[in-house]
Amino acid sequence: MPKSAYCKDCREPIRWATTQAGKVIALGASPDPKGTYTLVKRLVLDEREPFIYRERMVAVAVSQKDAVELQVHGELLWLAHTAVCTARRPRQHVPEGVLRRLEQRRQAVKDRNDRRTRR
Ligand SMILES: [Zn+2]
């Protein structure tokens, strides 16, 4: 994964990071005061070479309260590029908390259905 790149949809510069869950995420190329991620340098196990640690920039999601605190201490915040990608259809901004609850509800319904079909 290259350190800097361009969005394949809107050609805006982006930067790649890894989430704490180990997923790859595209962030804006420059910090954003409205950002919801902070970047932390972490040593993580290499995916291909066993017992080898590599330094990776890990995107850690921060709460709004923590975001204020971090910025007071001079930390930079980053926005997920998908939140600002101009190639995507303009849509209403849905706060992350709402998306998370939606996903939890979707999962709950799915679990219930799975349990039902198992009987
Ligand atoms: Zn884009």
Mean pLDDT: 88
Q: What's the tally of helices?
A: 2
- How many runs of DSSP E, i.e. beta strands? 5
Q: Beta-sheet strand percentage?
A: 25-35%
Q: Which geometry do the CA atoms define?
A: globular
Mind describing the biggest β-sheet? Answer: 5 strands, mixed
How far apart, in Å, are the first and last alpha carbons?
45 Å
Order of helices and strands: EEEEEHH
Helix content estimate: 25-40%
Total number of distinct structural domains: 1
Structural write-up:
There is one protein chain. The protein is α+β, with helices and mostly antiparallel strands. It has one domain (4-91). 27% of the residues lie in helices and 28% in strands. The chain has two helices and five strands, in the order βββββαα. The chain has helices spanning 64-72, 96-118, and strands at 4-6, 13-19, 24-28, 37-45, 53-61. Strands 1, 2, 3, 4 and 5 form a five-stranded mixed β-sheet that branches. 12% of the residues are buried. The mean pLDDT is 88. Zinc ion binds next to loops.
